[in-house]
Write a sequence for this structure.
């Protein structure tokens, strides 16, 4: 195998709101390649668009990455020699590159007012500030040089635009899509520096990727069309030799497979499409997260890793170490990957089942504490062992097993009516007493005691076990009944059985 290049990769989100789960997948793929190559995973906050800046969004991004264990090697608050890592703090660095574009004839000053641009768009809905139209506009290509000077020194607002050459083919070698060709006539003269002196995404992104010595740009498909401009920028700034490689990840599709997954799908389908819950200004702008749904972060990573990447084997469950070894850009598909929430839940189930019980108990404890219970460690671990094959998400532990901590709240009365025979009540009371007298209050001896009882009275398992289950848990579902008894202990079992038989009698009378 050829030796792998040490990669410098960046995840470069804009803090414009909660970070969509697709962003997390991008972060994950960057992270995996950095770890695999012994390279560096960088977080860069692209906050040049002050108009779209949302307070709290950066903290949300960092918290999401931390929750998932995708901790940056460099980034705001993480250290590194290429900072600052927030573009707003790099503002003074960009200007010289915009000037460099102008000096080399690859950029120009544009003095068009917002009204003039609106008017141009009104006159032609397909208006594009580009090679074919730029000579009709008010810029340093059309105004005499002394007037340009005068405007600049008078403080007239202006932007600096990229002068996209006409009639060129721009070729990108995308590591996922192969060769992608753009026709420069389709491209507009994008603004590089805004009238407030801030760079646009395009300029800041290229300058920073260069200065931060980024080797590979791995990002979502929606950025593919910007890459043509980016390639021109590398060329015009004289950085073509160190231009990073590009890889554009496939879209994440709705669960139906039709169209791109959006925030609204999350709301409509009642599923999370964000890593953590986000409390926006309104209900509309607030979203549920994978964490709050009760996902294990490792399961989320595993699920996301396979959204677009195919290991080429049957293996589905991967630890982060296994992912780091197996991951490769070559095995990422071009076509969209369907967001299958059931699959996400399946992964969670696999993780819960395979987690060491002490780690599992540590996850479950806060959920039980929230309900006012502080069980001893041994009890909680016993509970987790009993429930772990029956749950999908963390809150299920309480929902499906609350009766291990407090009395049964409701009994499945239709099952009671089918199974309970008041005439057998004295027998069952006798059974309860026999259980308490079993040699040890362990599943195996309780099982033996119940079987002895059944043969003494010619009863079948179907006559007895459902009654015990209903009495102890209120439901026919749930963990193995003898193990449940062992966990609950003799006192609780006795009280619950006595109490339930009364309730069962009443249910029959009412029916
Ligand atoms: N700031 C862009 C975003 O929000 C980054 C795109 C890129 O990675 O170049 O996704």
């Amino acid at each position: 195998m050829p030796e792998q290049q040490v990669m410098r990769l960046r995840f470069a989100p804009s803090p414009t709101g909660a970070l969509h789960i697709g962003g997390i997948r991008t972060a994950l793929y960057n992270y995996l390649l950095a770890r695999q190559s012994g390279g560096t995973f960088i977080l860069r906050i692209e906050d040049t668009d002050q108009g779209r800046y949302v307070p709290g969004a950066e903290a949300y991004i960092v918290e999401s990455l931390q929750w998932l264990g995708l901790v940056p090697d460099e980034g705001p608050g993480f250290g590194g020699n290429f900072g600052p890592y927030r573009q707003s703090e790099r503002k003074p660095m960009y200007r010289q590159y915009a000037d460099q574009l102008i000096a080399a004839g690859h950029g120009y000053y544009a003095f068009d007012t917002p009204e003039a641009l609106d008017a141009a768009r009104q006159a032609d809905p397909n208006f594009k500030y580009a090679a074919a139209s730029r000579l009709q506009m008010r810029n340093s290509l059309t105004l005499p040089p002394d007037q340009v000077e005068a405007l600049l020194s008078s403080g007239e607002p202006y932007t600096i635009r990229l002068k996209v050459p006409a009639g060129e083919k721009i070729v990108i070698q995308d590591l996922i899509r192969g060769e992608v060709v753009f026709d420069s006539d389709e491209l507009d003269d994008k603004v590089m520096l805004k009238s407030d002196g801030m760079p646009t995404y395009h300029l800041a992104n290229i300058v920073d990727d260069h200065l931060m010595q980024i080797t590979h740009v791995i990002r979502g498909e929606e950025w593919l069309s910007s890459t043509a401009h980016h390639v021109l920028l590398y060329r015009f700034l004289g950085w073509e030799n160190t231009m990073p490689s590009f890889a554009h990840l496939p879209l994440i599709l709705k669960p139906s497979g039709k169209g791109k997954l959006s925030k609204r799908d999350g709301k409509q389908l009642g599923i999370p499409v964000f890593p953590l819950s986000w409390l926006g200004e309104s209900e509309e702008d607030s979203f549920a997260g994978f964490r709050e749904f009760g996902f294990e972060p490792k399961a989320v990573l595993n699920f996301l890793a396979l959204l677009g990447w195919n290991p080429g084997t049957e293996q589905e469950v991967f630890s982060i170490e296994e992912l780091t070894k197996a991951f490769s850009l070559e095995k990422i598909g071009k076509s969209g990957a369907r967001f299958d929430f059931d699959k996400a839940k399946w992964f969670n189930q696999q993780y819960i089942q395979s987690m060491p019980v002490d780690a599992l108990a540590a996850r479950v404890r806060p959920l039980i504490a929230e309900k006012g219970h502080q069980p001893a460690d041994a009890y909680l671990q016993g509970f987790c062992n009993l429930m772990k094959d029956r749950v999908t998400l963390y809150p299920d532990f309480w929902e499906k097993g609350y009766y291990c901590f407090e009395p049964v709240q409701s009994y499945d009365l239709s099952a009671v009516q089918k199974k309970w025979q008041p005439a057998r009540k004295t027998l069952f009371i006798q059974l309860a007493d026999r259980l308490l007298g079993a040699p040890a209050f362990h599943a195996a001896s309780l099982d033996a005691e119940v079987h002895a009882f059944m043969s003494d009275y010619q009863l079948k398992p179907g006559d007895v076990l459902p009654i015990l289950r209903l009495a102890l848990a209120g439901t026919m579902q749930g963990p193995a009944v003898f193990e449940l008894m062992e966990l609950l202990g003799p006192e609780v079992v006795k009280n619950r059985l006595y109490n339930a038989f009364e309730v069962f009698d009443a249910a029959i009378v009412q029916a």
Summary: Residues 8 and 40 are 5 Å apart (CA to CA).
